[in-house]
Amino acid sequence: MPEPPRLTDAEMLARFQNSKKRPPCTETLGMRLVGVDQANMVSRFEFEARQDFANPTGAIQGGFIAAMLDEAMSTAAIIASNVTMNAPTLEMKISYLRPLFVGKASAEAKILKWGKSTCFIEAELFDPDGKLVAKASATQAPKAFKRF
Fold first, then answer.
1. Does any domain span residue 2?
2. Does residue 4 fall inside a structural domain?
3. Which domain holds residue 39?
4. Bridge partner residues of 121 (DSSP)
5. Less CB within 10 Å around the terminal CB: N or C of the chain?
């Protein structure tokens, strides 16, 4: 089956922003794609760090930060495949650099290498002031879309 025609960055952005089939995990994290640069394999996102993600100190619990970074990297892989594949995460490493609090957060994900059976991706998560909160790297396994 031939690959569908490649969408422009603006068309790809619109496709994701106007999608009616957003996964529940994407909705829970308040994720929104805000930028696509397919030539450089970079995608930009916004997230809503909700009060119910906070630990007793008021900071967002690390598992939610990990989920935001994983969601950003997975979406970046879908975009890099021209929306023909998903890329389940095989492994992920996260460095937490400062706390994130309730409110807006942003992320940038970049494909470092796209191979036949694996891809390598990095993502960074920022607080509303643009300060780096956490950085992740992952190995993912691109596969043709299939429901499990």
1. no
2. no
3. 9-144
4. 111, 138
5. C
Q: How many domains does the chain have?
A: 1
Q: What string of pLDDT tens digits covers the 148 residues of the chain?
A: 456 678 899 999 999 998 888 888 899 999 999 999 999 999 999 999 999 999 999 999 999 999 999 999 999 999 999 998 989 999 999 999 999 999 999 999 999 999 989 999 999 999 999 999 999 999 999 998 765 4
Do residues 46 and 106 make contact, with C-beta atoms less than 8 angstroms apart? yes
**70 SS3 class:** helix
- 98 class by beta-carbon count within 10 Å (0-12 exposed, 13-18 middle, 19+ buried): exposed
What CATH number is associated with residue 79? Answer: 3.10.129.10
* Cα–Cα dist 113/32, whole Å: 24
* Residue/partner pairs of 128-131 with CB below 8 Å, 24 or more apart: 128/103, 128/104, 130/106, 131/98
- The stretches of 2-130 forming alpha helices (DSSP H) are 9-17, 24-29, 62-80
Residues 8-28: b if buried by 16+ CB within 10 A, e if exposed: eeeebbeebeeeeeeeeebee
